[in-house]
Every structure is written in C-alpha cells, then in structure tokens.
Amino acid sequence: MTTSPSPAAPSAAARAERLTKVYGEGETRVVALDEVSVDLASGAFTAIMGPSGSGKSTLMHCLAGLDSATSGRVFLGETDLTTLDDNALTRLRRDQVGFVFQAFNLLPTLTALENITLPMDIAGRTPDREWLDHVIDTIGLRDRLRHRPNELSGGQQQRVAVARALASRPVAIFADEPTGNLDSHSGAEVLGFLRDSVDRLSQTVVMVTHDPNAASYADRVVFLGDGQVVDEIADPSSERVLERMKRFDGSRGQHGQEG
Amino acid sequence: MLRATLRSLAAHKLRLLLSGVAVVLGVAFVAGTLVFTDTLQRTFEQLFTQTTTDVVVTPEQEFQDTSGLGGVTATLPADLVDTVRGVDGMAKAEGIVFTAGVTIIGSDGEPVGVMGAPAFGSNWSDDPDLSPYRLTDGRGPAAEGEVAIDSQSAETGGLAVGDPVTLITPGPRVTAEVVGVFRYGTSGNLAGASIAAFSTAAAQQLLPEPGFTSIEGMAAEGVSQEELAARVQAALPAGVRVQTGAEVADEQAAALTEGLQFINVFLLVFAFVALFVGTFLILNTFSMLVAQRTRELALLRAVGATRAQVTRSVLGEAAIVGLLGGLTGLGVGILLAVLLQRLFALIGFELPSEGLVVAPRTVLVAVLLGLVTTVVAAYLPARRASRTPPVAAMRSDVALPARSLHRRAIAGSVLFLGGVAALASSPAAEGRQAAALVGLGALLCLVGAIVLGPVAARPAVRLIGAVFARSATGRIAVQNAGRNPRRTATTAVALMIGLTLVTAFGVLGASTTASTDAVIDDVVRTDYLVSSRNFLPFTPEVATAVAEVDGVGLVSAVRVAPALVDGAQTVMTGVDPATIADVLALELTQGSLADLEGGGLLVDDGQAVDLGYRLGQQVPVAFQTGPTSLRVVGTYASTGGFSGYVVASSTLDEAGLTPLDQALYVQASPGTDAAGLRPALETAIEPFPVVQLQDQTEFKAQIRQQVNQLLTLIYALLGLAVLIAVLGIVNTLVLSVVERTREIGLLRAVGTTRRQLRGMIRVESVVIAVFGAMLGIVLGLGFGVALQRAIADQGIRVLSIPWGLLVAFFVVSGVVGVLAALWPARRAARLDVLQAVTTE
After folding, report:
1. Which of B746, B748, B753 sits opposite A107 (nearest CB)?
2. Do residue B750 and residue A95 have CB atoms under 8 angstroms apart?
3. What pLDDT, on the 0 to 100 scale, is given for residue A4?
4. Fold of A12-250
5. For B757, which residue in chain A has the nearest alpha carbon?
6. How confident is the model at residue A256 (pLDDT cuts 50, 70, 90)?
7. Could you report the predicted ipTM of this complex, rounded to two decimals?
C-alpha cells in the first residue's frame, strides 16, 4: 500500500459511513440501506452484488450523488456528499463522477464524439485532447466518432458510454448493470474495456451487477442483502461468485437465475 | 373500445387540457360574438316596438338615406296634425319634431355622447302613448329656454336639473336650462345617441321650415293599425308617407340588422382565424399522444382491434375533447358577451339590460364548431395511429413510420410558387380582379407555407439556432427543436398565421397613413382646416364666424349630401366653384370648373370610364328632396382630395337641402402670418365645440391616429390567434419534456444544472417562436406589398413598410418564446434525476 495524503480514508475513492436510506413512510416504509459502511478503493474495480431488493442499486446511486442519504455520510474522494445542495451535487457529478447505465446512455441527437465530451461541453471546458485521444484509441471506435447512437451496435453504444465516463478523468466511474442489455460477446467487450481502464488508466470503477461472470472481472465483490453488507470476495472468479449468490437463493428461495 | 378511449382520455387530462383551451378560446370568440349581436338586435327590436305608435306619417322622400349624413330634414305642414286627428278611429295624434345635429355640450365644454353617434333634437310630449320619453327627474320643457335631456347625456355631461346648458344646433347656438332628465323607453339613451327635447315651438325652430318631421297617432279601441293607416292615407294629400307602427319598427330593425351584420362578420373573421390556429395545436397534441401511445395502440391491434377501431378510438377521444371544449367555449362566450355589454355601457353606449339572447343557433354553432374543429384536426393523427403495426407492442424501439418529406416538398412548392405568381401578376390586373388575385395568391402562399413548413423546419432551425451554438446546452436545444420537423413546423406555423396577418395589416396601415400624408401634402393648399369633431355636418354659422376673423383671406366650405345617381345611392360633394381650386388641387382632365354652377356635375376619371359618362351628358340625380337632372361638365383625377361626384353647393341649396358644412378650408390673406392667425381662429370657433381647427400637420396626425386606432383593434382581435399559437408552443414543449424524460434524466445525471436545463427548454422555445415569426413576417410583408400594389389606384398609392414595427414583432416573438418556455422549463428542471434515468 502506498501512503495516502488523507489519513481519514487511505486510498478510498468512495466511502459510505453508516449510510441509511429509507423510502416511503408508514405502511409503505422500506429500508433500502441499513447503516451500510463500505470503503471502495481507489484505482480498483469493485463489483456490488446482491439479489433484487438488496439495496445494491441504491448504494451505488447514493455513492454517485444521484440519490440522497436518509442518514449517515457518503464521501467521494474528500467530499462529503451529504452536505451538498443540488447544484453542488450536479457539478460534482459533472466533474468527478462517470456514469454508465444499463441502457439509454447516449443522447440520440449527438454524435458519438459529442456524447463522449458532453459533460465537459456542459461545463464549458475544453477536453484534454491528449487524454481524449488516448481514451478513444482505447475503446477503438475512432472510425465511428461521427456516427449517431442509432447507427452503433449495443456494445459500441456502451463503449461510447464508458469513454464518456472516462473522458473527464473522474474520481470514480459508476456502472449500473452496464452489460444487462448486451449479448455475451458485446458484454465481454465492455467488461474488458472497464478492466483495461482500471489496469491501464488507473481508473476507479464501481459496478452493480447480478451477473457472476461480469463480477469476475472485478478486483473485489461486495455482497449486499436486505440493505446490509453481508459478505465480500477478493479476486473473484465467476464460480465463486455464483456459489455465493446461490446461498442467497437458498435463504430467500425465490431469486432464481437472473440476467 | 369505448372504455379504452375514455381511460386514455382520463390518463392524458393535462395534455388534452391545452388543446381544449385552444378550442374553448376559439369557440368562445364565435359564441360571444353571436350572443352579443343577437342581444343587441333583440334589445333594439324591443326598443323600437315599445316606442312606436300605431300610425306614423312622414314626408315622402326620394329614398331612405343609409349614409347617415343626413343633409335634409323634410317637414310636414303643421296643419296636417289636425287632419290626422280628425280621421275616424284615431284616438289621439301629435306632431313630432325629431332632427339630427343638436349637440349637447357638457359642463366640461365638450360635446356629450359617443364619438360619431348622432345627436338629436326633439319636441317634448308628456303623452306616454305617443312619446318614448320617460322623465326620471324634473319636468318636461314648456317654454323657450327650457330643455330636457336624456339621462345618459346628463350623466356623462355632468348636467342636472337646474343647470344651464349649451346646445349646438344646425342653426344658432342655443343656451337653455335643463328642466328635466328622461330615459328613452327603458334605455338611458337611443343606442348612444343623445337627445335634447324642447317645447314644440322651440323645437320647430330647429327645422328649416316650420312644421313637424312626423305625425304619430294612436288608434281607438277596435281599429287595427292597417285600417287606420289606410284611412289616414286617404285623408291626407299626396307627398306624405303613411306607415303602421309595425312597419316602422320593422324598417328600423332591418337597418340595424344590416349594421350588426357587419360587426358580426368583422368579429367572426377573427374568431375563425383563432379557431384555425387552434386546429394546429390540436393536431400536434393528438400526433404526440398517438406517438406516445404507440405500444398501447399496438397492443390493441395485437389483441384484435381493427385499424378502423383504432382510428375511431382516437377520433372518439377528439370528439369528447371537442364537445367539452365547445360547451365550455359557449359558456365563456356568454361571459364575453356580458363583458362587451359592460364595456359599451362604460363608453356611454348604454343598452337596456333585457338579459342575454342565447339563440339555439348559437348553442348549435358552438358545439358543432368545437366538435368538428377537433375531430378534423385529429383525423390525420388518428389515421397514423391506425397504421401502428401490432408488433410494436412487443418492442420498445418501433416508431411509427415517418413518411418522406419529398412529396410534401413538391406539393408545397407548387402551391407556394403558384401563390407567388398570382401575387406578382396582381398589379397588372384591374380593380376587383387585382384584389381577387391577391386573395388567391395569399391563400395559395399560406397553404403552401403550411405544407412546406416541415421541409423548411430543419434548415431554418439550424440557421436560427446558430446564435445559440456557443454553448453545449444551446446546441442540444437547437437539435431538439429540429428533431421532429413536423411538430416544430406545426407549432411554428400556428404562430406564423397570426404574424402574417398582423404584418400584412401593419404594412397596409403604414401605407394608408403614408398615402394620406402624401395626398394631404399634394392636394390641400390651405393653412387651416375646420372640421367636425364627431363626423357630423355643422352649421354654416361657423363659416361666417371664421370669415369675419381679421386676416382670413379665404374660407371655402365643402358639403356632402346623400343622393341617388342613376339609381345607385352615393354621396355627393358640394363645393364652391369659385374658391375650391385655391384650397384643393382639383385637377380637371376635361371640362371646366366654371361650368359647375347651375346644375353642373363633375365625375372622377375612374367613374367616368366605368359608367361611360361624356361631357354634356344629362345624368338623372335624386336628392332626398326630389329628383333633378345634372349635366356632366368635367372629369377630374381622383388623386385623393375626394372621389366620386362633385356639384356646386348652390345646386344642393336649390335642391332644398339643409345647408350644413362638412369641412372648411381656411387661407390667410396675402401678407398675413398664418401661424399668427391661430388664436383669433380658435376664438372664432370657440362657441362651436363640435368643430376643431387643424393645420396640415395636425390633420395628418389625426388621420394617422384613426388608422392606428383601427389597427390597434385589429391587432387586439388577432391577439387571440397569437395567444393560441403561444399556447401551442407551451403544449409542444410540455409534451416534448414528457417524451424526453429519459434524456433529461441523463443530462442531469452527467452534470447539467437545473438552470442549464431551463435554458435549454427556453432556447428550444425561442427557436420555434422565431421560426414561426420569420415565416409570418416574410409572408405578411409579401401580402402587404401585394395588397398595396393592388389597391394603389384606390388611394393607397404609397408603399410604406413599418420596419420598426416588424423588428418589434420579431423581438416580441422571441420574448413570447421565453414566456412560453417558463412552465415547461420548470417541469423539466423539477424532474427527479433517478426516476427520469430509470423511467421506461
């Protein structure tokens, strides 16, 4: 481990402290996250897994500044997200967070390149050409930059989305089921690319998935169940992840083969 | 299927609300107009029926004047009253004096009454059967120097019983004491006209010769109006006209109907423009609803609904919206009519409030209009809906097939170019034909532009959007505006229609003003003009008073009189042949002004050609006092001073017409400073508040003001169409925001601030609005120019384009865009990011 300038969170890109998220009130009250504390290491690829309703997506949304915490604290780098107002959160998402959603990542009216530089364009900043070239070469879509999303395959679209997430050199990239809508070949392409961005560009990646194979690309898998961190595996293989997931099925019964 | 229709309606309440509002506004305008004019009509019919007697005797006149200029007050000899009283079956009869041109001057020194409404003088009668006057205060006038006035005049003029009042009559100026205030039947006054009632002897002094203007009588028990009228006719000498009270009421009502019909048509034209604009809004709403419901409709198709059923389902939805819109529009229209009535009362046009007339015809028109407009507008979207392939239910990415714009481009171009060709060829055509060509050309151009709109939308949006291209959000907004060219075009075209009309009227108004200015500069050669303030002719005493002013060299009076020439009613201008050439440029093309005295007639060139008049030809002319024959002694160029028939004033005198002047042209004597003459002239006309003194600059300003007043009225009426177009922009934006929820969510997720998002919606709105405004202003400019060219020979010979106004329209459109975006932008900015991103 290298020494970190921040003694509070050595090498953590994102961190949750006793994070609780409650939806609804009274009868419809649902505790999505129940005092979750987790550190997500900088420069690492972390997968968050768990059955439906385990709170994995909520955790990611809170870490990424898309959703607010009911109580507890959330840090992105040095910033406590729970103290920020909407405008500050928006700027934080723009400048320090990269997103890859399951579907609908790109604006249909913009070309691939315009989509990649969108957050910087919104901020009114000129992208770092060198870095941008580097990112574009890494995703290998240089000849498709002028195409619009509907002229790209699903896998290509997701690669553009990852490139967009990388382009602004965020503190962390959050990916929500990035391969959920893809065939296995395209999925492998995108996951390989996320892995590359960690290995070659030292990027921090946090991915929510329920596909054990996707999780096997990660450095570490954090398992959530009923709003709490229940387990984690370092250097996972898909077999080990599948095994762990099956134990959820055993205890919950109804979550069969998903994804 | 019906249930599906109703459910869908309930689910899209908000979206349908806006198109509903468009229907409501349009229908309300139509319904309000109908209710208002119907109410006016019934009110007057009742007033006339209430206030007429059984038999009315009037002097026989050559024709019934409809110009309202008067010109003569024919009388019956006073002794005929006794003859009428003596007729068997006559219960009672009285001689009536009722004449125009008696203006009451209020306590503020200003004439009372509605501008341009006639002012009557009458004799007083206490008999409630024979007189419509009902005292509310004081008593009837019994002696010279006493007058009773209508309650509306008393109110607006600040006059009460006991006050002294000045009255301007066709003869001398009169001062009297107000001894009574009365109502006319149930009304405060006679449809805005003021009435001053005198004792019979005093009233008779208002007439050119002693006597009465009419004799009215009531039948004895058991004698019918017709029977009595026949007996009266038999008892009286020739030269009188005997009518039953019913006939007179009908005649008055018929004249009124004609006037109301004009108001009706005038207002309805604007109402239909508003409705037409509304159809674009409805079309857009249903197009978007259908697009959004693709999967739902596909599901219906998949479970076995036929194409016809899908079409009917959408049309059914439209029918319900139309029906509700029509009914609500009717209600709002009735409210509008009430407001109009209040407004009229406010400006002194008090109407007896007998309740509103909501004729079954009005209800039917309102409901049908709402229904038909909406269903017609929804037809295209409905047909499109029926083409939804059932497979779309299973997939999320099936969009309805978009038809190519090629055929549209060709059809639109053909229409548009045809219109341009018609407009371009119109100046070569003559008179009526030219106007018809302009109308046809304008229609073709407008339809062509509507058809071409979607073709032009993309390039136009890109062009306009270039201004906003500096920021990323601006670029995205512009792209969004160009994304659905049909929708953008439909939205913009609605605004275009309003602005086309506004611009065309603007050009026409400016050209009219400029042309009149030019005419006044070219034609009027005098220092001052004395004219009536209420458009009614005034006493020759004014001319006398002005002529007596020291330093006045020349006073030339111009008169007008209604006349029948070759059987057609027209207005004859009376001039002084000796002086008219000094004050007005009257360019004779043939003949001589000097021959005008002694029964001569001048005709303008256009009319001479149209009617084939030759010099020396005798033309049969009838004044109200009787027929005569005038000889054509010359023709003149109608460059603007006046047009039509000109005679010598002496000819009018000889015909027995009351000498009343329409305008006086005043010239300072040589060596006198014209400007220095003003105070003395002002003093000279001071006793006659009905007239005003103007120099050429003021005269021009007055005409400009009149044109502007008319323009303002037209703009206000077109404002509704523009308002509906703005609602259309709001509608399109709101629906776009709903459609693009996920995109907005994504933009927010990757760091677009709320402020930036609002800005985006605003830019989109402004681009659409400016696109519509540009189309409208260009088209309107073209129409205005073509129209001016077509009517150049009718006095609008100068083309003037109000550039400042056009720029203002353009800027206002931009502002309208910003305003239209307010609500949709707020909605977009409020979207919850997470929900928006994850929404299906």
Report:
1. B746
2. no
3. 38
4. Rossmann fold (3.40.50)
5. A122
6. very low
7. 0.80
